Amino acid sequence: MNWLDSEAFVLFGQHIIWSDMAGNILGLIALALGWRRALWTWPVQFLSGLVLFTAFYGHLAGSAGKQVVVMTVALYGWWQWRRGEEGADDGRIAVRFASWPERAAMLSAAAGGTVAVALLFTAYPSLSWDPWPDAYIFVGTVVAMYAQARGMVEFWFAWLLVDLVGVPLNFANGYAFSGFVYVVYGALVLWGMRDWWLRSRRTPQPVLEGAPA
């Protein structure tokens, strides 16, 4: 038996699974590291996806497949931040607000991706426990991670929108532990949003070659 699928303990009548607990804790650590603009946010996010993939592989193909996508985006984020093309004065990633075309592209990808993934989950019920909210949370997470990789302040707004669905959904389905973790996510998101917002205002804009001084 895969020990990641075994019960860690019971809290308030809820059976806490090792994989769920470990994945959520690693997710919280990764989000905190993202707030600090630390490169280690990406290995931790990758490790979180790997833990959940190991737990799901072999009996929950849909959930395992989603973790592969999350790990792939984590690798992209690591590569993007390592490039250092937008490094701030403190040697970490510089943050900025997305342009309107970038915002439109992310919103379109989020909307279209949610519909496409939800229809896929609906066609193959074994891939998801609840197609539409599951698709919304999954696609929203991928979009948020992409925005984070690009150093966009909108990363935090995307996470907040995911939390707005994730918190009540987990509590409504009896997952009090996961719901509580999402509440903590929400607090970190608000603090991180404020920090990145203020930093974006201090980030000097690039000067085009040939522009007047």
From TrEMBL:
Instruction: Tell where it localizes.
Output: Cell membrane
Q: Keyword set for this entry? A: Cell membrane, Membrane, Transmembrane, Transmembrane helix, Transport
UniProt KW Cell membrane keyword: yes
Membrane-protein topology:
Multi-pass membrane protein
Instruction: Mention any Pfam family matching this sequence.
Output: NMN_transporter
For this protein, the record's InterPro entries field holds: NMN_transpt_PnuC (IPR006419)
Q: Which spans are transmembrane here?
A: 12-33, 40-60, 104-124, 136-162, 174-193
Family from the record = Belongs to the nicotinamide ribonucleoside (NR) uptake permease (TC 4.B.1) family.
Name the PANTHER family for this protein: NICOTINAMIDE RIBOSIDE TRANSPORTER PNUC
Q: What is this protein called?
A: Nicotinamide mononucleotide transporter
